[in-house]
Amino acid sequence: MRSNSSLTSKVYIKMSGQIKAAVLTGSTEKNQLTEVKDIPFPKIHDDQILIKAVSYAANPTDWKHAVSDWGNKGNISGSDVSGVVEQVGSKVTGYSKGDVVSTFLHGNYYQNRGAFSEYVIADPDTTIKYNIEKFRNEPLSVGNHKFGPIDSYEGAASVTLGLVTVALSFAHNLHISTDRNANASKYILIWSGSTATGFLAIQVAKLVYGLNVITTASKKNHDVLKSIGADHVLDYKDKDVVEQIKKIGGENITYALDTFSTQESLQSVYDATENTKDVVIDNLLFLNENSIKTNPSRNVKFTQTLVYLVMEDQKLGNMFIPTNEELKKDYREFWHKALPPHIKDIKHNNLKVLEPGFKSVNPALELLREDKVTGEKIVFRASSD
Can you give the residue ranges of the Enoyl reductase (ER) domain (predicted)? Predict the structure, then answer.
């Protein structure tokens, strides 16, 4: 009896007191982007859920917020986390206490919510629920792990931002039909398939849409990308890579996603789709037809995916970018209906597992800032303390 009372008391103190989180310091110095602080225990709204964090993933957006005016001192860092549902808002359906989930949120942006926290406020619209029977409880060992099915908290933490990005790109910006028969003869060009987003985009394009997938990558990644669904993988370093793509796709490259998103890569994507009468080209930065050399006689639509718009209007520095209901509708339709049946078949990318605890946040962000990690997602477990 005393043991149960003691446990209840500890839970109550945790749920009503302070928790630890990695927050932005306001510094841009190496290994000083974040620090561990005590923050109030988060309170959810009726349309939110609360997650007890088990594993985290680091993303380039985390360090970019930290060194720009997108993120302010005291904001909770981190955008990707997996864990167990602790609380469910009264207006939320489809989730229960104890569910294994991963979620993406606009980290580094708020002082009361971010992924690198012991408990995390999550929105159902950016959360994935997993089959707990197929999940392993033991942590992955520190070091490198190959791509594979999402059966660990580390793997789950690594995919959510990427899947939300792909969902918004495919369902709204590219407006791809989910009619697999209609897509049977169509191609999508995914430039840089070994990136975190590209790796997932290949799988979604094949599993959900049934598209023919052309992608680019260094030769060492060709076999891996073919194993997850790419029909054609070309070396982006080849001088004639654009001509190779045109020969394969002909006039049927209806969609393109540039996950590398530089002027050079966008120019290559544009040139490779030259034979298609009507094509939509998406990228993950703010590039458009004015960023490259174009032919005014071609009918090409350029779009830009800013993943945070699935949540709300965005103010990034001096830029104000509004969202809209059509965007949210297209995204939610895909996220809640088209994607869930395929989660069991999606594989996470290679993982680089760091030491558990928030002590790994700064090293993770520095690895990304210095561009020392390619073809891997950096993940780490919550502290066991």
Answer: 26-380
